[in-house]
């Protein structure tokens, strides 16, 4: 169902829709399920009663598109398409702008204080009044001017001007660049494990920090079929039955 509005608003105006780069329904559904279970456990502590937690991927995908849905519900007669929501191009203060070296800046200065800082620091205070243009033509003009201005210098030039400021501007990083980012390293968002056949492997850490019961990584992901006999044994299969399944090719 097109991620309930996510796909149709993703991409450039006049171009075919683009596939979002993350699995919003899958990840959102899992996160909402975890929140629901925690809420139910808290309710049980207070009432002594358990309850059924109903979470679906569809519901989660729908709820995560709240910004575009709010714009649509607030203006029922409006047809929202690519490039026409607050987060996909309808305002100059929120977008991706390419620099002279081909690298890009992410500008998310929706609030006035961030936008003013951004405009002043890059030397274009005249754009401050155009944060939310009422006219689409004005939006197109200002976005074009921002794009042309930022393309005159490499990304690092603009980052040096803005890195010490609260401007809601950041570099658009490739996955390789993200893995080497200083803040990623400082937060321990990657960890290294010794795999019995793959050697040292870097993986993404759990993005939760618990002060008293921190998470621990005790073993690497299993090889295909590594625990088949263990799982079947726990399910009640005898060694003879497991051997027969293996001989028949039912298990590897």
3D structure, described in words:
Helices cover 40% and strands 10% of the residues. It is mainly alpha-helical. Helix 1 packs across helix 2 (57-64). The radius of gyration is 25 Å and the shape is extended. It starts with 23 loop residues before the first helix and ends with a helix. 15% of the residues are buried.
The sequence of SSEs as H and E is HHHEEHHHEHHEEHH
| Gross morphology | extended
Helix content: 40-55%
Structural class: mainly alpha
Percentage of residues in strands: 5-15%
Which residues form runs of ≥5 with pLDDT under 50? none
Please state the oligomeric state of the protein chains shown: single chain
Mean pLDDT: 91
Distance between the termini: 36 Å
User: How would you characterize the largest beta sheet?
Assistant: 3 strands, antiparallel
In short:
The chain is mainly alpha-helical and 252 residues long.
List the SSEs and their pairings:
Blueprint: H1 24-47, H2 57-64, H3 66-74, E1 94-98, E2 104-108, H4 112-121, H5 136-150, H6 155-162, E3 169-171, H7 175-179, H8 182-186, E4 190-195, E5 199-204, H9 228-234, H10 239-248
Antiparallel strand pairs: 1-2, 2-3, 4-5
Helix pairs in contact: 1-2
Give keywords.
single chain, 252 residues, mainly alpha, three-stranded antiparallel sheet, 10 helices, 5 strands, 10% strand, extended
């Amino acid at each position: 169902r097109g991620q309930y509005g996510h796909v149709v608003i993703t991409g450039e105006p006049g171009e075919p829709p683009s596939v979002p780069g993350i699995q919003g329904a899958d990840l959102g559904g899992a996160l909402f399920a975890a929140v629901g279970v925690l809420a139910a456990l808290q309710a049980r502590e207070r009432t002594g009663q358990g309850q059924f937690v109903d979470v679906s991927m569809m519901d989660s995908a729908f709820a995560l598109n709240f910004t575009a849905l709010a714009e649509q519900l607030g203006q029922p007669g409006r047809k929202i398409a690519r490039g026409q929501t607050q987060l996909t191009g309808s305002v100059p203060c929120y977008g991706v702008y390419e620099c002279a070296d081909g690298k890009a800046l992410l500008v998310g200065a929706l609030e006035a204080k961030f936008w003013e800082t951004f405009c002043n620091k890059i030397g274009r205070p005249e754009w401050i009044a155009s944060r939310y243009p009422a006219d689409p033509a004005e939006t197109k003009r200002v976005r074009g001017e921002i794009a042309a201005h930022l393309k005159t210098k490499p990304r690092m030039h603009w980052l040096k001007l803005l890195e010490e400021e609260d401007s809601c501007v950041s570099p658009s990083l490739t996955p390789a660049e993200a893995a080497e980012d200083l803040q990623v390293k400082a937060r321990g968002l990657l960890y290294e494990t010794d795999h019995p056949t793959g050697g040292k492997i870097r993986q993404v850490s759990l993005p939760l920090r618990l002060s008293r019961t921190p998470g621990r990584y005790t073993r690497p992901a299993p090889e295909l079929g590594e625990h088949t006999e263990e799982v079947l044994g726990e399910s009640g299969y005898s060694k003879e039955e497991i051997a027969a399944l293996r001989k028949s090719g039912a298990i590897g």
